[in-house]
Design goal:
The complex is a heterotrimer of chains A (about 260), B (about 280) and C (about 300).
Chain A: E1 3-5, E2 13-23, E3 26-36, E4 41-45, H1 52-59, E5 70-77, E6 80-81, H2 87-93, E7 94-97, H3 109-113, H4 115-119, H5 126-139, H6 143-146, H7 159-171, E8 177-181, H8 189-202, E9 207-211, H9 215-221, E10 224-229, E11 232-238, H10 239-244, H11 249-255
Parallel strand pairs in A: 1-11, 4-9, 4-10, 7-8, 8-9
Antiparallel strand pairs in A: 2-3, 2-5, 5-6, 10-11
Helix pairs in contact in A: 5-7, 7-8
Chain B: H1 2-40, H2 43-46, H3 62-93, H4 98-112, H5 115-132, H6 142-167, H7 170-178, H8 183-212, H9 215-220, H10 238-245, H11 251-282
Helix pairs in contact in B: 1-11, 3-4, 3-6, 3-8, 4-6, 5-6, 6-8, 7-8, 8-11, 10-11
Chain C: H1 2-49, H2 55-59, H3 65-73, H4 83-113, H5 118-132, H6 135-148, H7 156-181, H8 184-192, H9 197-208, H10 210-224, H11 229-232, H12 252-261, H13 269-296
Helix pairs in contact in C: 1-13, 4-7, 4-10, 4-12, 5-7, 6-7, 7-10, 8-9, 10-13, 12-13
Classes of the chains: A alpha/beta (about 260), B mainly alpha (about 280), C mainly alpha (about 300).
The complex binds adenosine-5'-diphosphate and magnesium ion.
Magnesium ion binds near residues 52, 53 and 181 of chain A.
């Protein structure tokens, strides 16, 4: 039984009857239905192994890299089925940031920011490139820290800087939606605070879906929250309402630290 | 306590044996090569004249050094597209699937075929094809040998670069895919740049194998003691010359053959050390 | 700015997908081509070789050229077998193993016990370089050390010394790798009971890494068993069965080489090659089995 206490007009994403299995018998995501609000931060919470990453990775069709994974159901982006789009095109509209910072080690900071363009074979002139790099790095408040070492390898940066570089790499491509899978779990508290601040700032321009198993993070920065358990979406609502007054007993147990 | 000490000394002594074997090999090869280097000096290496006829004796290693390098490098060139595609098949396109493990096993089988069997197959199956294609009259020569060498080194090059390609972190590949890259773009912009030095090392080590291969080359290269003048020319490699002429050799000729063995030893040692060094730095 | 590039970007979709597909097809085609030599070689050996294999093949000495010629002229099958080659190969492998296995295992244990000191790294590097030495060069070594100075003539000993040096680095490195997988706790348990060091090695470490050591040894043997070049320079070959270490000895690959060089005996090369190949394959299969079995446990 899903507690759905949220009413979203004009959603960016509509997830319908989504089920995902790594092998035929065991579904990691079971029949999830949800609408994702535009220019908001939606947090996906739940204990480890409950299917958060699996759900997130379905949104930009990451699972198709692994032929054995079965996906059923439908996801709409602005009303259009993502399965009718080219993956290349879809992934440009829906960017992704991973748990461990993963800048390309063979590329400079500069090249990492415009990696999306390079990978997609899009020719830019120098002014355009410089513009994009400066703007994207500014957006993640990294510009002042790295503007003198743009042509050094990105892997020399600290973990938090690397993660912000990865966010910049995603922003550079000007996506509509940004998916983040526990982006701060490998960072120290100060770097985490910076990234959280950044995300709140970014929601003005982007829609953000954030997987986290850190409840207080969800409480601090998200507008809406999903609670998943054993592959099911148990409860979905406004973050504030859900944290103060959870409807489902499982959600309450989780939020009060009984498990997770 | 005492037995512990003894055991430690025994193990140390055995490790010393390895050192002694190695030093002894260098020493014996150098000793055996001494007469010819005394006679010709370094001219032995740059002279192209090999003539064992008594009275007109003259020994120069250049044709064989060149023959060895050309056949091996050509083999590497032929091997590369085949083995690298196989690596991409096994370690990327069909990674962890059944068909990839079958292909891997088949390629491994190539490493189990004795050199002399490759030689027979080259002689009876490949050579007629070369003749039928009109590439050379007898079908012997650099090209024929290089094809066989290429096949022989495929398993070494493939299994090493498989490991290297698998070591490229999934996170990086996924990062690229999440930016909209196609597999082609991921291979050329992420996998190859990240694995480059390891891949180079795999092929250096495969080259090291090709340099020392003996029997198959002996049976196919035509054993002409000349500097090859083309792709389809006959020639001789250092290893095949030794195999051919060692039997009846003595005196200065024996020393010349040992000297060529020493050179071959040095070349392969350097090539292998380089390959291993790069691999170690890579991982 | 981003919108400007959008148009050009969408235009390239199709081209990029086509390029991606073409590349995949090339990879598949080249991979299939890579498998063709093994299939061609194996089928050639089986088609040409099976006919010659019978009981005589395993029990009779190799024919001499006259026997082969007269059989050929009267249109009969070439008589004889390769028993002197088989016994020779077994004898050489046995001798080489007797030399290489104890030295290799002890050196491997030494490397394992002494981590990465300067001296152990030197030994490791030497083992690495030794692994790359061409077998023909080891033939020269066998010739200089044994043929010229000890047996004063071609001999089984000379050949097995060359083969043993080939086996050594493989056994050393596989021993070290296997030892690393023995749980520390097992050794400590032994040491805590006051068991002497050499007994821990003999009774604990070697038995618990037995399958790993076995695999290393089998792979080393399968590598030397088809070697021809070093034997040409050391054991020479023999028309009779020989089990004396200071006498010339035949071996299957040497017989193949003789048959190949004698127009009358050409018919025998395929069966002998098939036998040799089968031998190597079986050794490989057994070691793969052991590895698979170990990984399961
Ligand atoms: N690559 C995979 N292959 C098989 N099972 C997987 C794989 N990835 C995740 N799973 C399983 O799917 C379930 C959900 O995993 P995941 O989505 O990673 O959870 P979360 O991100 O919430 O911790 C878990 O039971 C996990 O074991
Ligand atoms: Mg996860």
């Amino acid at each position: 039984m899903v507690e759905n206490n949220i009413n979203i007009q004009n959603p960016v994403l509509s997830i319908r009857n989504l089920s995902i299995a790594y092998d035929e018998k065991k579904f990691a995501v079971k029949d999830v239905n949800a609408l994702i609000e535009r220019n908001a931060i939606t947090a996906i919470m739940g204990p480890s192994g409950c299917g958060k990453s699996t759900l997130l990775r379905a949104i930009n069709r990451m699972h198709e890299l692994y032929p054995k994974i079965i996906t059923k159901g439908e996801i709409l982006l602005n009303g259009q089925s993502i399965y009718e789009m080219q993956t290349i095109q879809l992934r440009r509209k829906i960017g992704m940031v991973f748990q461990r910072p993963n800048p390309f080690p063979t590329m400079s900071i500069y090249d990492n920011v415009i990696a999306g363009y390079k990978l997609n074979g899009i020719k830019l002139n120098k002014d355009q490139r410089d513009d994009i790099v400066e703007k994207s790095l500014n957006d993640v408040t990294l510009w002042d820290e790295v503007k003198d070492s743009l042509f050094k390898k990105g892997t020399f940066l600290s973990g938090g800087q690397q993660q912000r570089l990865c966010i910049a790499r995603t922003l550079a491509f000007n996506p509509e939606v940004i998916l983040l899978d526990e982006p701060t779990s490998a960072l120290d508290p100060i770097a985490t605070a910076k990234v959280e601040e950044l995300l709140v700032d970014l929601k003005k321009k982007y829609t953000i879906v954030l997987v986290t198993h850190n409840m207080s993070q969800a409480a601090r920065i998200s507008d809406n929250s999903m609670f998943m358990y054993l592959g099911e979406l148990i409860e979905y609502g406004k973050t504030e309402a859900m944290f103060t007054n959870p409807k489902n007993p499982k959600t309450e147990e989780y939020l009060t630290g009984k498990f997770g | 306590m005492k037995s512990e000490k003894i055991t430690k000394y025994v193990l140390f002594a055995v490790s010393l044996i390895i050192l002694l074997i190695f030093a002894g090999m260098v020493f014996s090869l150098a000793g055996g090569a001494m007469p010819v280097f005394k006679e010709y000096g370094l001219k032995f290496i740059i002279s192209a004249d090999w003539n064992p006829t008594t009275g007109r004796e003259s020994y120069g290693a250049l044709p064989f050094i060149i023959g060895t390098l050309i056949t091996s490098l050509l083999a590497l060139l032929i091997c590369f597209p085949l083995s690298f595609s196989t690596s991409l098949f096994i370690a990327e396109f069909y990674h962890k699937t059944r068909v990839a493990s079958v292909l891997g096993t088949i390629v491994d089988l190539l490493a189990g075929i004795p050199s002399i069997v490759y030689g027979l197959w080259g002689f009876y199956t490949l050579r007629p094809v070369i003749i039928a294609l009109g590439l050379s009259d007898q079908g012997f020569g650099i090209f024929t040998s290089s094809i066989i060498l290429a096949i022989m080194i495929i398993p070494y090059a493939t299994s090493l670069s498989n490991e290297i390609i698998t070591m490229v972190p999934t996170e990086l590949k996924e990062a690229a895919y999440s930016l909209g890259a196609t597999r082609f773009e991921v291979i050329f912009n992420v996998i190859i740049p990240n694995a480059r030095s390891g891949i180079v090392a795999s092929y250096i080590l495969a080259l090291g194998r090709a340099l020392g291969e003996t029997m198959a080359v002996t049976m196919l290269i035509g054993n002409a003691n000349i500097i090859p003048d083309g792709l389809f020319s006959t020639g001789n490699t250092m290893a095949s010359l030794i195999a051919n002429q060692f039997g009846e050799a003595d005196g200065l000729k024996l020393s010349a053959l040992i000297a060529i063995g020493l050179l071959l030893f040095l070349i392969t040692a350097i090539v292998n050390a380089l390959g291993k060094y790069i691999i170690r730095k890579f991982s | 700015m981003n919108l400007g590039s959008d148009i050009a970007y969408i235009d390239t979709f199709h081209r990029r997908k086509v390029r991606n597909t073409i590349f995949k097809i090339i990879v598949i085609v080249l991979s299939v081509i890579t498998t063709s030599p093994i299939i061609l070689i194996l089928s050639k050996l089986i088609i040409e070789g099976v006919g010659q294999i019978n009981l005589d093949f395993f029990t009779q000495l190799a024919p001499d050229t006259f026997q082969a010629m007269s059989a050929k002229m009267s249109g009969e099958k070439i008589p004889g077998g390769i028993v002197n080659g088989i016994t020779g190969t077994l004898f050489l492998v046995l001798l080489a193993s007797l030399i290489a296995i104890p030295i290799g295992i002890m050196a491997g244990i030494y490397l394992y016990e002494n981590g990465s000191k300067r001296y152990t790294n030197l030994i490791r590097n030497i083992a690495d370089i030794m692994q790359g030495i061409p077998s023909i060069v080891l033939g020269i070594i066998g010739y200089i050390w044994i043929v010229k100075n000890i047996t004063h003539g071609f001999s089984a000993l000379a050949g097995s010394v060359a083969l043993a040096i080939m086996m050594l680095p493989l056994i050393i490195r596989s021993t070290e790798e296997t030892m690393k997988m023995v749980p520390e706790s097992i050794k400590e348990a032994g040491a805590a009971l006051g068991v002497p060091y050499h007994r821990i090695i003999l009774k604990v470490m070697i038995p618990s890494s037995f399958s790993g050591l076995m695999t290393g040894i089998l792979l080393a043997v399968s590598r030397i068993i088809g070697e021809t070049a070093p034997l040409l320079l050391t054991t020479l070959g023999s028309p009779v069965i020989n089990f004396e270490i200071d006498k010339p000895t035949s071996a299957v690959p040497l017989l193949i080489w003789n048959f190949y060089n004698d127009p009358n005996m050409i018919d025998l090369i395929w069966s002998s090659s098939l036998f040799l190949m089968g031998f190597v394959l079986i050794l490989n299969l057994i070691s793969k089995r052991i590895i698979a079995h170990r990984e399961k446990n």
